């Protein structure tokens, strides 16, 4: 053992042999822990093919902490070997994939994109790699939550090694301690350097970085074999037989496939939309590969907001809906756009630009106002627009006989009119057959110059009322109806929504 | 709101000026507020005008008699002499697949003096008017074949059986006909509909369709039958 590798107390220079940080108290502590490990167990585990950090994890009494990240793999290895000349050069041992952590704690993996083996001797190389991959995704963040996902066979591997150790070293105290998992060990090793490298805090924030390790290709075979083996090993131990041998660890261990994914929790935008066209549906409507209508409110709004957020996708939620042939005028209908994995939160200015773009578009199909970014209170706002609220409409109605003076009064005198609507035929295929009682709060008739059979009906109704069916009666399944009130056949020509009250 | 200028109060004549100045500022503020309220009111009126313009602008050509809701939303089919001569029925099929079944104007029941006087849904094995179909999946709906009886309609002269004509689930019968059988005489194609059936499979409907005729074909057939009675205007 050369004296060079032993860190002297208070030594702050960068030493040879791979020490990446100052030779300070941290590395000294790790060195001392290394020296204190049960040498027989260390030798056994090294020859089985367990990596240096896993050895620390499994048999050290001291807690596995971030001090370890400052020491390179090769240095750790040389500290553990301690005068064992037969074990050969450190190179060949370091190149074996750990039989427990499959290279994860050795910072060895196969890159998912480039499909080649990547090795880092130190945690800082690894952290630099992860930082690069995160930066490529262009997310804008000041804090992140770190998630690690590892293959399930690691549990089995660890169980196998631990039961081997328990048999051989059953009396040792360090066996009884709870072992930190590979997942948590990796987090402990890299969290602080990663924070420094990304320039961000770590918390359970809305932005997550997920490091995923998955087993190399022919894992299906490997998994079943391992499970089978470990099951066999377990029953053997129960039977008291001693057939756990080093032979059962002789498998070819492949490094894991590694990838980094960044995900931001969805952000929300609220506003009110107007629909000026009678050929635009509220949401994307496609039957048999054919689009119904010319466009949809959902796509016009979402399609313009998404690029401003650099997001992956969007979801549209509205406080109620209207048919494709019904215009949404007046104060507009409240809506929410939920954006998945946005890379940046758009500024007020860019939201204004989105509004202008939609409102000044050539075709004038849809309008929007009050577009803004909104937080978790968005759902409460949507709930407000639901069942209890009132909606106001204007309908163009035709009746079979000419409009008379008395009709104006007979209609406007009806306040809080209760109507009973059977589920309309046009939605009966997908809704429950029920009788729904609704209230028409008030109605007004407005003459149309030059037409005695047509008039504009202004009405305010309870949310959930089918207006078209109230006018034409839906084969008598909505009573009373406009027709039954006026004593003749009535038809609805067109309908506009003029107010969606949200309750101030 | 304009800031009220603070000027130093020194001697009396200047105080007068100050008071004047302050009064003017306050008045200016009031004016501004009134103006704002007026502008708000004007904006509201403007909005309402905008709305009215939009509402009225869309009213294009208004025909004397517009197409009915049934004509717009349903495709009309007919079946004549179903199982018996003169038993003519209509099947109005909605875009969503549902079929409304009823008596066509040439049904022989209408030829009897006094028209239809009674409707009874208690036919076959059960009373069709007591079925309770529930839920989106339409549980407890009676599975019907084209020949399944829906109801019996009676006139002073005779009783006639009305059948489903369509294979599917019986969702609803028009129980109002029990108390108001005269609906069949006045508007058999609207308030006097008999039942609503949901074909269970697209294949069932395609097969069914083969035995039905279109509105055009029905009209031709009717003209051929030299009927002395005038046709119901509601057919058009």
From TrEMBL, chain A:
Family of this protein: Belongs to the pseudouridine synthase Pus10 family.
Designated gene of the protein: LOC104776156
Record-linked Gene3D superfamilies: 3.30.70.2510, 3.30.70.3190
Keyword terms: Isomerase, tRNA processing
Domain Pus10-like C-terminal: 268-500
Enzyme Commission number, as recorded: 5.4.99.25
Pfam family, one: Pus10_N_euk
Residue ranges of the region described as Disordered: 222-241
Top-level class of the enzyme under EC nomenclature: isomerase
InterPro entries: PsdUridine_synth_cat_dom_sf, Pus10-like, Pus10-like_C, Pus10_N_euk
Name this protein carries in UniProt: tRNA pseudouridine(55) synthase
Keyword 4Fe-4S: no
All copies of domain Pus10 N-terminal eukaryotes, residue ranges: 98-226
Automatic annotation (TrEMBL), chain B:
Residue runs in coiled coils: none
Pfam family, one: GCV_H
Stretch list, region Disordered: 27-48
InterPro entries: Abitram (IPR039169), GCV_H/Fam206 (IPR033753), Single_hybrid_motif (IPR011053)
PANTHER family hit by this protein: PROTEIN ABITRAM (PTHR13651)
Family: Belongs to the ABITRAM family.
Protein name according to UniProt: Protein Abitram
């Amino acid at each position: 053992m050369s004296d060079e590798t032993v860190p002297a107390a208070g030594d702050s220079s960068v030493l040879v042999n791979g020490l990446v940080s100052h030779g300070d108290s941290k590395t000294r502590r790790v060195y001392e822990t290394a020296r204190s490990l049960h040498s027989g167990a260390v030798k056994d585990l090294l020859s089985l093919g367990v990596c240096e950090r896993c050895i620390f994890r499994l048999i050290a009494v001291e807690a596995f902490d971030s001090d370890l990240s400052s020491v390179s793999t090769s240095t750790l290895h040389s500290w553990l070997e301690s005068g064992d000349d037969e074990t050969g050069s450190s190179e060949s041992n370091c190149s074996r994939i750990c039989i427990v952590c499959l290279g994860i704690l050795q910072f060895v993996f196969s890159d998912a994109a480039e499909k080649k083996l990547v090795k880092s001797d130190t945690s800082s190389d690894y952290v630099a790699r992860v930082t690069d991959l995160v930066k490529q995704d262009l997310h804008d963040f000041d804090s992140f939550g770190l998630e690690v996902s590892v293959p399930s066979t690691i549990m089995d591997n660890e169980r196998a090694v631990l039961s081997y150790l328990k048999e051989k070293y059953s009396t040792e105290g360090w066996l009884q301690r709870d072992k930190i998992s590979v997942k948590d060990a990796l987090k402990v090793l890299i969290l602080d350097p990663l924070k420094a490298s990304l320039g961000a805090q770590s918390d359970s924030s809305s932005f997550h970085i997920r490091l995923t390790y998955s087993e190399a290709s022919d894992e299906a075979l490997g998994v079943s074999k391992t499970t089978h083996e470990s099951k066999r090993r377990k029953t053997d131990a129960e039977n008291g037989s001693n057939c756990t041998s080093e032979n059962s660890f002789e498998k070819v261990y492949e490094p894991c496939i590694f990838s980094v994914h960044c995900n931001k929790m969805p952000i929300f935008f609220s506003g009110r939309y107007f629909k000026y066209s009678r050929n635009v549906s509220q949401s994307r409507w496609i039957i048999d590969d054919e689009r119904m209508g010319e466009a949809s409110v959902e796509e016009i709004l979402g399609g313009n907001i998404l690029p401003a957020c650099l997001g992956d996708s969007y979801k549209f939620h509205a406080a109620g809906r209207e048919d494709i042939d019904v215009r949404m005028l007046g104060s507009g209908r409240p809506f929410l756009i939920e954006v998945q994995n946005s890379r940046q939160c758009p500024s007020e200015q860019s939201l204004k630009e989105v509004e202008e773009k939609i409102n000044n578009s050539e075709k004038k199909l849809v309008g929007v106002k009050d577009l803004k970014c909104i937080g978790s209170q968005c759902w409460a706002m949507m709930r407000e627009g639901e069942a209890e609220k009132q909606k106001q409409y204007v309908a163009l109605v035709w009746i079979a006989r000419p409009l008379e003076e008395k009709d104006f009064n007979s209609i406007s005198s009806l306040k809080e009119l209760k109507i009973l609507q059977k589920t309309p035929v046009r939605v009966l295929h997908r809704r429950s057959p029920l009788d729904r009682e609704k209230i028409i709060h008030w109605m007004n008739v407005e003459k149309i110059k030059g037409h005695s059979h047509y008039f504009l009906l202004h009405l305010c109704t309870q949310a959930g009322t089918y207006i078209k069916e109230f006018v034409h009666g839906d084969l008598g399944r909505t009573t009373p109806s406009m027709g039954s009130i006026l004593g003749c056949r009535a038809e609805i020509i067109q309908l506009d929504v003029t107010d969606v009250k949200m309750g101030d | 709101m304009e800031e009220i200028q603070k000027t130093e109060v020194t001697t009396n004549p200047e105080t007068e000026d100050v008071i004047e100045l302050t009064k003017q500022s306050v008045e200016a503020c009031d004016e501004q507020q009134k103006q704002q309220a007026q502008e708000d009111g004007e904006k509201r009126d403007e909005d309402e005008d905008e709305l009215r313009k939009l509402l009225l602008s869309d009213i294009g050509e208004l025909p004397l008699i517009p197409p009915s809701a049934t004509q717009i939303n349903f495709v009309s089919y007919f079946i004549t002499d179903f199982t018996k001569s003169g038993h003519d029925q209509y099947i109005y099929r909605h875009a969503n697949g549902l079929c409304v079944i009823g008596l066509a104007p040439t049904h022989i029941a209408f030829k009897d003096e006094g028209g239809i006087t009674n409707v009874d849904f208690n036919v076959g094995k059960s009373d069709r008017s007591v079925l309770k179909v529930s839920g989106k999946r339409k549980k407890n709906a009676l599975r019907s074949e084209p020949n399944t009886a829906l109801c019996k309609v009676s006139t002073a002269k005779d009783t006639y059986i009305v059948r489903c004509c369509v294979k599917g689930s019986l969702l609803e019968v028009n129980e109002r006909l029990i108390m108001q059988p005269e609906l069949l005489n006045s508007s058999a194609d609207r308030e006097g509909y008999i039942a609503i059936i949901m074909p269970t499979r697209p294949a069932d409907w395609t097969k069914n369709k083969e035995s039905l005729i279109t509105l055009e074909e029905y009209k031709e057939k009717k003209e051929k039958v030299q009927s002395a009675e005038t046709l119901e205007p509601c057919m058009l």
